[in-house]
């Protein structure tokens, strides 16, 4: 599996910065030339055994991990052994992932009657039909609540592990933490669900035990984030921002421990049900 990616993670643009300085009675605006670092997002076409399946907007980094994780959380593959080969190549306006899968996975691709998914950056289930969401099978997991001290430790150190986000400030992160709160794996992307797919893909490719520890998200925890974590067999998810009601119901139904929002001043344990 190899990546051939010519796109940078971020680009710099000339901009004018407006700041405010406090005068005697009012705030005075000051305008000056500056530089803004903007995270790149490119379309990635996912093609399984020559069949167009989806086009997702992603940050062009750790793309192999994303393809593996997306394939798993989309239920195209059941395990990493279903993947035969991944080749990432540059196209005129983006990237293409040619993915070879086994016969069982190919049957799943062929069974999909919808048109190829067009996934925008902020969307985790774009292109899915209503039935595929409401009737989605959610497996059960063995939830384990992390120690509060471990969560606090991860919260204090998470920003320093966001290597790609330094100087950009707009990339989400999904981090895997050991039970003691030590952060061991981080994946980043302009899309929060992409970051989680990348982390899950890394775990699939490297036999990470997602039952021992917890996942830390820098984003809100919506339904698809909870569903992806459950599919990966994670025992606990911690997110900086609040969860949606559907995410709470999904987590409770599956036994996933969901702690959200988690801030330096405190946190809410919303799942499993008390």
- The CATH topology annotation of the largest domain reads as Cytidine Deaminase, domain 2
Total number of helical segments? 7
Give the helix proportion (percent range). 25-40%
Per CATH, which architecture of the largest domain?
Answer: 3-Layer(aba) Sandwich
Question: What Rg is obtained from the alpha carbons, in whole angstroms?
Answer: 20 Å
The description of the largest β-sheet is:
6 strands, mixed
Low-confidence stretches: none
Count the strands?
14
Strand content: 35-45%
Subcellular location: Cytoplasm
Keywords: Cytoplasm, Molybdenum cofactor biosynthesis, Transferase
GO molecular function, one term: sulfurtransferase activity
Family: Belongs to the FdhD family.
SSE arrangement:
Layout lengths: L1 E2 L6 E13 L4 E13 L2 E7 L2 E8 L4 H11 L9 E9 L2 E8 L1 H9 L5 E3 L10 H5 L13 H14 L10 E6 L5 E7 L2 H14 L8 E4 L5 H9 L4 E4 L5 H10 L2 E7 L2 E6 L3
Parallel strand pairs: 1-6, 4-7, 5-8, 11-12, 12-13
Antiparallel strand pairs: 2-3, 4-5, 6-7, 9-10, 9-11, 13-14
Helix pairs in contact: 1-5, 5-6, 6-7
